[in-house]
């Protein structure tokens, strides 16, 4: 990547990671790895939260979530 693009991506980082190109390059590369990984983890977390909310809502009506999966709609 070009120097200007790296420093633009490093904006907001702490210390020399925002203005020293060598450190900024390493930090930006690691940040991009984290963002790639966490986009997938976010989907996993949201799916888990979604199931928990549905389960809580169904229990208020006397049904459990696993029963919803089994019963024909």
From TrEMBL:
Q: What does the record list as GO biological process?
A: translation
GO MF, any single term = structural constituent of ribosome
Q: Which CDD domains is this protein grouped with?
A: Ribosomal_L20
* InterPro entries listed in its UniProt record: Ribosomal_bL20 (IPR005813), RIBOSOMAL_L20_CS (IPR049946), Ribosomal_protein_bL20_C (IPR035566)
Q: Which GO terms describe its cellular component?
A: ribonucleoprotein complex; ribosome
Q: Which keywords label this protein?
A: Ribonucleoprotein, Ribosomal protein, RNA-binding, rRNA-binding
PROSITE patterns documented for this protein: RIBOSOMAL_L20 (PS00937)
Give the similarity note: Belongs to the bacterial ribosomal protein bL20 family.
Which NCBIfam families does the record match to this protein? rplT_bact
Per the entry, what this protein does is: Binds directly to 23S ribosomal RNA and is necessary for the in vitro assembly process of the 50S ribosomal subunit. It is not involved in the protein synthesizing functions of that subunit.
Q: What protein is this chain from? A: 50S ribosomal protein L20
What is the organism field in this record?
Quercus rubra
